[in-house]
Amino acid sequence: KMKILRQTIKSILVILIIFASMINTQSKAFPNSNSRAPINVGVILFSLDNAIIRQIKQGLENLQKEHQIKVSVFDAKNNVSIQNEILDSLLKSKPNLIISMVADPREDSVREFILKVRPYNIPLILFDVAPEIAKKVSNDYDKVAFVLPDSKKAGEVQGEIIRDLWRNKSITDKNGDGILQYVLVSGPKSDIIANQRTQASISTIENSGIKTEKLQSVVTNWNRELAKSNIENIFLTY
């Protein structure tokens, strides 16, 4: 999982560095331009109530220390309305680049986000958009780029972690029945990427010869407190 995270951050940073180099090259080509002005990048993340997203935020902010880039990170709090308010305000400030992990990864929502940015002619990078959706909306704007996730690979890595933990049955198989009982805590049902990741994770576990039994499935919409509350109630039940 951490390997996938590092690859995601690396991909975003590479694009940012390339973008910064392009701007700097243009500044040198036109002496009247202010080549010392930092590149302003606005970043909208769907929720900072998530350890992985916070690490992405930190990775982006660390970029400021190494390059002439100013990064402003905003928390959409997993709410499309808040996300759109942030985007509207950000567009008025006319940053050089916008990066976002959208709060709603469905096609209509992703397209709406892109069409909001297009009139301002600001380059846009979207990540964690399902490849099939990215393909459909990529023609809506010629300055949008996508950092596409390898959902299957991420799920396989998660499954491999559980597979390795299961080998120590004295700790993991509490009832000694040789079956991996689990509670599935997931994001929104509409999140294609999360669903693909989950399917790959379970398949990896089962393909390794481990018998599984899903006790319950809980949709928490990436809300930490909701997930914690649901899990505690399930543990009381069992």
Secondary structure: elements and pairs:
Blueprint: H1 2-29, E1 39-45, H2 51-66, E2 69-75, H3 80-92, E3 97-100, H4 107-117, E4 124-127, H5 131-137, E5 144-147, H6 151-166, H7 169-172, E6 179-186, H8 192-207, E7 211-219, H9 224-237
Parallel strand pairs: 1-2, 1-3, 3-4, 4-5, 6-7
Helix pairs in contact: 1-2, 4-5, 6-8
Question: Could you walk me through the main structural features you see in this protein, from its secondary elements to its overall organization?
Answer:
- The protein has helices spanning 2-29, 51-66, 80-92, 107-117, 131-137, 151-166, 169-172, 192-207, 224-237, and strands spanning 39-45, 69-75, 97-100, 124-127, 144-147, 179-186, 211-219.
- β6 (179-186), α8 (192-207) and β7 (211-219) form a beta-alpha-beta unit.
- The strands form two sheets. The protein has a five-stranded parallel sheet with strand order 2-1-3-4-5, with helices on both faces. A two-stranded parallel ribbon has the order 6-7.
- Residues 1-5 and 20-33 have low confidence and may be disordered.
- It contains nine helices and seven strands.
- It has 238 residues and is of the alpha/beta class.
- It starts with a helix and ends with a helix.
